[in-house]
Amino acid sequence: MIARYILAGSLTTAMALSAGAQARDREREGDRNTYLTSTVDTVLPLAKNGGVEIRLHSGEVIVTGWARSEVRVRGTSERGRLSVEGSSSHIEIDAQRTRGRLGDTRVEVSVPEGTRLTVSGNSTDVTVRGVKGEVDVETANGDVVIDNAASRVSFEVMSGDVQISRVQGNLRGEAMSGEIDVTDVTGEVEVETVSGDLTLRNVRSRYVRAETVSGSVEFDGRTESGGRYDFASHSGDVHLLLPATLGATISVETFSGTIDSDFPIELVPGQRHGKEYEFKVGDGGARIAASSFSGGIYIQRGTGRTQE
Amino acid sequence: MTGHPMITCELLEERLADWLEHDLDAATQAALERHAAGCARCGRLVADLAAIRRQAAALPELVPSRDLWAGIEARIQAPVISLEQPQVARRRIRSAWWMGVAAAGLVAVTASVTYYLTNRTSGSSPSVAAVDSPAVRAPDTSNRETVGDPAASLATNPGQSVVPNTTRQQRPSSPSSSRPAGAASEYDRDVAQLRAILAERRAELDSTTIATLEKNLDLIDRAIAESRAALQRDPASEFLADQLARAMTKKVAILRTAAMLPVRS
Description:
The structure holds two protein chains of two kinds. Chain A is mainly β. Chain A is built from one helix and 27 strands. Chain A has one helix spanning 2-16; strands spanning 27-28, 34-37, 39-45, 51-55, 58-66, 70-77, 81-86, 90-96, 104-112, 116-121, 123-129, 135-141, 144-159, 162-177, 180-186, 189-192, 198-204, 207-212, 217-222, 228-233, 238-242, 248-254, 259-261, 266-267, 275-281, 286-292, 297-301. The longest helix of chain A has 15 residues, at 2-16. Residues 63-68, 75-98 and 119-178 of chain B have low confidence and may be disordered. Chain B is elongated and about 70 Å long. Helices cover 63% and strands 3% of the residues of chain B. A two-stranded antiparallel ribbon of chain B has the order 1-4. In chain B, helix 5 packs antiparallel against helix 7 (181-200). At the A-B interface, strand 12, strand 13, strand 14, strand 23 and strand 24 of A face strand 2, helix 6, strand 3, helix 8 and helix 9 of B.
């Protein structure tokens, strides 16, 4: 199997480097199945549900799922070198320094649907589409787009916007600055940010937690009896667009903000700590908590496509 | 309550773990089984534990989303030092050392936060249930309600329903006793240490990262200050205590992230 990889890697790398000027950057490290080039265009086989790990410092990663049982890697590194190394179940793509320098790297990778994908970078934009498998993305500074994934999706971003859509599985992510936009997720959702807004649309889940410090939180989705839904901001507003047929026990709390609800609120007497209310809608089956220290809390009856 | 002359309920509880692990001799095992069979309380306990074991065994295997150690090792591992580049080498050694310090600091801070938050809850006086009030329901003229001050709303909006609250609890005032001074100062000290690490690492991080960190730490510090000030005015508010705890936890998370960031290229 390893010999096949060497052959495949040799052929494709040789094709990619036929331009002569690039040949000087190509190295093979002894007997390891590793190829280091400034430009790479190679195809490697990967078993069903195999793993692909991509590590860049700065630049861009674009990963697309396809129906083939192989991985195609195309990339260029401005000053560093690209390493593609792997086995039939796991492939690693790395950007490595040349004489202490790295520069920007751009990598386009096609992976079999169902692949477990891990991408990490420092200043790296990451786009993942159609992988239909587990996706884990970490980048310090960069935008992240993940569309059509499954099983488990996680992200960690310091500065950059995050767009997540069509996830059939659990989603967990943290950002510091930047907006987090989540659409069409079926599974547990936990998202946090500090200074960005959180938007969750068409989420169908038994567990949702969305928390930000200075941003706003917007939720538009279904709730399930017995499900738990927590939304919190320190200084931003919390907007909930809930089904007209809602059955939930809702608690809302704010210190200095306002509360506005389409659903009738049954006030609880004797409270003196800011504004705290708990009220029941329908059968009260779901538990919804919304809080903001100084922002408003707005609860509306939904009328859109997320209606039950 | 006791189903066997030699085995008591207390003894069964004491030996329960060994029993479940089959670490007892046959005679003791049989005696415990006889006791459980004849004692309703112990029988229920054993049946519950057996059910939990069965359910736990049926759970799918949990697989971590990524190998955390690989990432940590890559970041704290001492690099190979070239003799031709003494200045670079010195800097990298210091980076690795700081990573080690950061890792140790993270453990301390995590422990401090846990200690702080745990003590904040457990250190306060026992909760007392809020006094129930009779339900008052007046004709509801509108579904939509905009609520400002709760007391004012209660007084001026007769259309709203007022129901007794038997689920919420009101804690008695506990201004400073709820925050153990030792844990608080430990938290502050650990945060200061992590800030010092961050200051040392400034040269290793790019300007965008530093700007993002500073901006967000400022936001969180503001949130902490606001929550603290509000809590001082209203020490019994669980909501404000939660707000403060959230902000403090978030601050530690950010400092931890900063301490573990890779160096710029």
